[in-house]
Amino acid sequence: DLFAWSNRNEKKQSAIAGARDKAAGVLEGVSDVTIAEPKGHYCGYYVELKSPGGKPTESQMWFMGEARKRSYKAEWFDSAQNAINSIKEYMNL
């Protein structure tokens, strides 16, 4: 199942460590923030954080798409304030 995973936040690591994570079932592209609180018609909220002007990787976009298919809210932000505002809105649903 897609959501039986562990998140290592795509940190820089050696090829050996990366292979070990992959063999252990670590899923590439998992969002930085997980809010495991159902709100409104959502099962939870995944938030990917980027530096100003940054964009999600292909695997991060894939993960967010899969999360949305499963009734999770999933968004990315290149502004901390926009992310905070969105999380506040979500928690008030």
What do these coordinates show?
This protein starts with 14 loop residues before the first helix and ends with a helix. The protein is 35% helix and 14% strand. Strands 1-2-3 form a three-stranded mixed beta sheet, with helices on both faces. The longest helix is centred in the C-terminal third of the chain and has 12 residues, at 58-69. The chain has three helices and three strands, in the order αββαβα. The protein has 93 residues and is an alpha+beta fold. Helix 2 (58-69) links the parallel strand 2 and strand 3 (73-77). It has helices spanning 15-23, 58-69, 80-91, and strands at 33-35, 45-49, 73-77.
Task: Offer a concise description of the structure.
This protein is an alpha+beta fold and 93 residues long.
What portion of the residues fall into strands of 2 or more residues? 5-15%
Strand count, sense and barrel status of the largest sheet are: 3 strands, mixed
Number of strands: 3
- Pattern of helices and strands: HEEHEH
The total of helices stands at: 3
Low-confidence stretches: none
Shape: globular
Output the radius of gyration: 14 Å
Strand ordering within the main sheet: 1-2-3
Helix percentage range = 25-40%
Q: What is the CA–CA distance across the termini?
A: 27 Å
Label the structural class: alpha+beta
* Mean pLDDT value: 86
